[in-house]
């Protein structure tokens, strides 16, 4: 939270038999809102997507322009940087189909343009995470930071 000095990406493993919790830092860079493919919730998953937080610990959590894609099997991290003055929120993974691979689909979320006071709804290709967005829809108002979302297939 805002009162924390640093918010690394961590994994907590709970062993109910031993009544023990093991904590492992996956990435020490400050970040928040880790989201995997929701079809994997409660099961092992390979990919997690997080939003970077500014290192200066702005209490409003504003100012960082990056999203991260963590490959938990390979131990790697990719970065999508939206550029100066652009602040992404929490992105959600949308699978290409009910049977698609874990990173076969898109990431959708809001990106605030601080200078223009607008918000873009952005669609990224999860497999080409560092590439240009697949689509960007500009909303002519600034949606407040911290606006969360989910995707539900109909």
Description:
The protein has 154 residues and is mainly β. It has no helices and eleven strands. The chain has strands spanning 9-15, 20-27, 31-35, 47-52, 66-71, 76-81, 86-88, 92-95, 105-113, 118-125, 135-139. The strands form three sheets. Strands 7, 8, 9, 10 and 11 form a five-stranded antiparallel sheet that branches. It has a four-stranded antiparallel sheet with strand order 3-4-5-6, with no helix packed on it. It is globular. The N and C termini lie far apart (34 Å). The mean pLDDT is 89.
Layout of SSEs?
Elements: E1 9-15, E2 20-27, E3 31-35, E4 47-52, E5 66-71, E6 76-81, E7 86-88, E8 92-95, E9 105-113, E10 118-125, E11 135-139
Antiparallel strand pairs: 1-2, 3-4, 4-5, 5-6, 7-9, 8-9, 9-10, 10-11
Query: What is the string of SSEs from the N terminus onward?
Result: EEEEEEEEEEE
Overall mean pLDDT stands at 89
The count of strands amounts to: 11
Could you say which structural class the secondary elements and strand pairing correspond to? mainly beta
What characteristic shape results from the CA principal axes? Answer: globular
Give start-end ranges of low-pLDDT stretches. none
Largest sheet: 5 strands, antiparallel
Distance between the termini: 34 Å
The helix content, as a percent range, equals under 10%
Helix count?
0
Rg of Cα set: 16 Å
Beta content comes to: 35-45%
């Amino acid at each position: 939270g805002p009162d924390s000095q640093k918010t690394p990406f961590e994994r907590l493993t709970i062993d109910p038999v031993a009544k023990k919790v093991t904590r492992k830092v996956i990435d020490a860079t400050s970040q928040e809102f880790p989201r995997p493919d929701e079809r994997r919730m409660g099961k092992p998953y390979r990919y997690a997507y997080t939003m970077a937080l500014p290192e200066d610990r702005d209490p409003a959590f504003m100012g960082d322009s990056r999203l991260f894609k963590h490959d938990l099997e390979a131990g790697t991290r990719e970065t999508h940087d939206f550029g100066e003055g652009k602040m992404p929120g929490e992105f959600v993974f949308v699978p290409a189909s009910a049977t698609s691979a874990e990173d076969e689909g898109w990431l959708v979320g809001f990106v605030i343009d601080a200078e223009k006071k607008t918000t873009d709804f952005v669609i990224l290709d999860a497999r080409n995470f560092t590439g240009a967005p697949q689509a960007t829809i500009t909303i002519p108002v600034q949606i407040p930071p911290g606006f969360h979302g989910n995707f539900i297939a109909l």
